[in-house]
Amino acid sequence: MSLISLLLNAALSGVGSWICYRLILSYIPIFIQRKMYGNDQCKVSNDPVPEPMGVICAAVYLIVMFLFIPVPFFEWIGADIIFPYARLLAILSGLISISTAILLGFADDMLDLRWRHKLLFPTLSSLPLLMVYYVSGNSTTVIVPSVLRTFLSSAGFPFVVPVTVNIFYLYYVFMGMVIVFCTNAINILAGINGLESGQSVVIAFSIIVFNIVQLVRVDAQYWHHLVSLYFLIPFASITLVLYHFNKYPAKVFVGDTFCYWAGMTLAVVSILGHFSKTLMLFLIPQTFNFLYSIPQLFHFVPCPRHRLPKFDAESDKLFMSTAVFKKSELKSLGKISLTVFRLAGLLYQREFEKDGETWLEINNLTIINLVLKFCGPMKESRLTLTLLGLQVLGSFFAFFVRFYLASVFYES
Ligand code: UD1
Ligand code: MG
């Protein structure tokens, strides 16, 4: 029965993707007419590029998901067996969180929201999902790595270290943080053609593979991996269509609507699928980009409105973009973080004198600029492919850690 549900899900996703393709084509002129567009900052021409096209894709995705809702429950409808309400609730709560993320993204596209709102709103919209997780009696237990247990016992730890520990509310705090992180992670690794949609496609397909492997290998978590696939297959196929239009040279921009929708969908599938820790392995580039961005995100270091690379029309290449500010403007946390990055070789910094004051020029703190720092200026299409290549490498690493290292560390 679950195989039939999966096949129907894939069929609906295929139809949804085709509809999405047609809709994007027909909405491109409408977006321009309604003045919903952005300007490609890495091109010579200043032609308007329709934005946010993610809203069309998200709408098709929701329709596909709504149509699919009854499918996994066919065998219970009209039968004299107890209906699995918890499963239906899980799907509905996931859809609530995804819908609110789409709303937040669209509001951001229209209004350019403040950072505190971008953090507060996803925190609140995670509550339906976490509440359902709680009432469904889902586990908040973590396994203690065997190496840690062995180490503690040999170090004379006075108690027998248990194989598992229930961390109760901390688990909910962690899941809430995963949701807030994911909703913003893709949006801050953005700004060159095809990057937002491309990274989402790579992550989504990697997690689809992970779920299928888990379904085949095991397991007690059968339903959880299945529900994760129900959300991911339509997402991956619709996003692939969006990538087709968003890749270099971009005919559409995805907008914040897409970035928040994508991030929230990944967070939702990991929570419903019970693999939120594994999800973080598939988001290594996003996590690194977030950590590297912290000084600018929290304004320890001045942060310009746009941190995307600088376009040089003559060579048709992208260069690192920089932030320039008076040295005296730097707060102490800013000084510390820049020193750490400089010592680690992760910072371009130039100091110069102007009007009797010392000024600093540093690269904007994103991994996009970091790739340009290490590899030198390059064409936009090549830069996107390099970053997507890193994402693919990250996925291979994630599989290695999850399936090889984890079995070494967690075997009892
Ligand atoms: C986030 C980033 C910002 C980055 C921007 C690019 C942080 C804190 N914010 O801001 O640094 O510059 O995304 O998306 O990291 N654009 C292009 N080419 C593309 C995609 C976007 O030129 O391939 C430009 C267009 O002008 C487009 C604009 O970026 O209109 C979209 O920016 P927006 O999504 O509003 O920026 P933020 O999400 O606020
Ligand atoms: Mg954005």
Question: Would you mind describing this structure in some detail?
Answer:
There is one protein chain. This protein is mainly alpha-helical and 412 residues long. It has helices at 2-33, 54-68, 85-111, 115-125, 127-135, 146-154, 169-185, 195-217, 222-246, 255-272, 276-282, 284-297, 332-343, 367-375, 380-410; strands at residues 37-39, 48-50, 141-143, 164-166, 310-312, 317-319, 322-326, 349-354, 357-363. A three-stranded antiparallel β-sheet has the order 7-9-8. A hairpin with an 8-residue loop joins strand 1 and strand 2 (48-50). The relative contact order is 0.13. The site of uridine-diphosphate-N-acetylglucosamine has 19 residues, from strand 1. Uridine-diphosphate-N-acetylglucosamine binds next to strand 1. One of its GO terms (cellular component) is endoplasmic reticulum membrane. It comes from Caenorhabditis auriculariae. This is UDP-N-acetylglucosamine--dolichyl-phosphate N-acetylglucosaminephosphotransferase.
